């Protein structure tokens, strides 16, 4: 008993010394934790709306349970054709974003890393970062000026060359290509910052040893740079897979129009149109809860697979 009490008192003393030395770090966590508690965790109470018949005049605790043991609105959602289209479009657009958009910042970071002229490199980086600070409303305005069927700059050039104008924003297949293309353009420069930071952490002696062995730039990139940033790539890929049913609201809402709603309506815009404008709060809360659960499932599965393959994963 004496040894246990001495050990516990020693641990409490060491903990007190540790907190006395590093209390500033924990104090800095107070505001972020307060923000998460108020704006992220406290609103989770309202998730129960998905299982109840919502009424504006009643407290959420007084709301009656929905039919089918509370799963009435989940069943309604999966019977709703608009939701099925929105689910399909969300998966399609996010998978295409992942397929074409995820490698773009990696490739850009590798190319930037090979540039010898520092001033030119800084100029290129600055130009590539700029689209990230533009709202999607502004980007769609630019897209309209460039890709409009009759008076868009690109279609005017195509018409001058004797070809038919391309309906970039009015035809489903062309719209998807334009949507993905502008998404890559907006994000690839900003996304490369993380990879450039990871590249900067690679031991330069590895490159010197490779040069002595006669390795060229491509060999160094393939055998040193890419393996060096592999853990960063895996972590960001896992986080991207966790957002496979997510995505923002502003980008699809800005780009969609009545001619392409069959391929442009996603879960976020469906929730806005049906939930906020249509006042079907229980239905869209059920949709949002389903979206979150599927996102967590993909996140956990991707992390599990990465750990099984020998990577670090997120945790």
Q: Please, what is the average pLDDT?
A: 88
The unreliable regions are none
Helix-strand pattern: HHHHHHHHHHHHHHH
Which overall shape is indicated by the principal axes computed on the Cα atoms?
flat
CATH superfamily of the largest domain: MetI-like
Characterize the largest beta sheet: strand count, sense, and whether it forms a barrel.
Answer: none
Q: Class of the largest domain in CATH? A: Mainly Alpha
State the distance separating the first and last CA atoms: 37 Å
Question: How helical, in percent, are the residues?
Answer: over 70%
Counted beta strands: 0
Q: Explain this structure to me?
A:
The protein has two domains: 1-37; 50-308, MetI-like (MetI-like fold), CATH 1.10.3720. It has 15 helices and no strands. The chain has helices at 2-28, 30-41, 72-79, 81-101, 103-114, 118-129, 136-147, 153-160, 172-200, 204-212, 217-242, 250-255, 261-264, 267-277, 281-308. The longest helix is centred in the middle third of the chain and has 29 residues, at 172-200. The protein is flat.
């Amino acid at each position: 008993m004496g040894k246990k009490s001495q050990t516990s008192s020693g641990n409490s003393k060491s903990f007190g010394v540790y907190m006395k030395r590093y209390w500033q770090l924990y104090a800095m966590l107070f505001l972020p934790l307060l923000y998460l508690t108020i704006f992220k965790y406290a609103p989770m109470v309202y998730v129960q709306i998905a299982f109840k018949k919502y009424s504006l005049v009643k407290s959420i605790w007084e709301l009656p349970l929905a039919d089918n043991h509370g799963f009435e609105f989940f069943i309604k959602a999966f019977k709703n054709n608009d939701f099925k289209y929105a689910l399909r479009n969300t998966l399609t657009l996010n998978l295409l974003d992942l397929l074409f958009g995820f490698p773009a910042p990696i490739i850009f970071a590798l190319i930037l890393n090979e540039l010898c002229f520092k001033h030119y490199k800084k100029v290129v980086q600055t130009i590539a970062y700029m689209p990230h600070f533009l709202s999607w409303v502004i980007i769609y305005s630019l897209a309209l000026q460039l890709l409009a069927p009759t008076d868009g700059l690109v279609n005017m050039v195509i018409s001058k060359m004797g070809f038919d104008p391309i309906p970039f924003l009015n035809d489903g297949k062309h719209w998807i290509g334009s949507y993905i293309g502008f998404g890559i353009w907006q994000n690839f420069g900003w996304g490369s910052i993380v990879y450039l930071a990871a590249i900067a952490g690679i031991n330069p002696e590895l490159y010197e040893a490779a040069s002595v062995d006669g390795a060229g730039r491509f060999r160094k990139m393939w055998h040193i740079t890419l393996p060096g940033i592999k853990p960063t790539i895996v972590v960001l890929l896992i986080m991207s897979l966790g957002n496979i049913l997510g995505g923002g609201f502003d980008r699809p809402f800005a780009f969609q129009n009545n001619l392409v709603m069959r391929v442009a309506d996603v879960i976020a815009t469906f929730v806005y149109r049906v939930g906020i404008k249509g006042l079907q709060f229980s239905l869209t809360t059920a949709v949002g809860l389903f979206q979150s659960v599927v996102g967590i499932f993909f996140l956990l599965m991707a992390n599990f697979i990465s750990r099984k393959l020998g990577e670090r994963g997120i945790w």
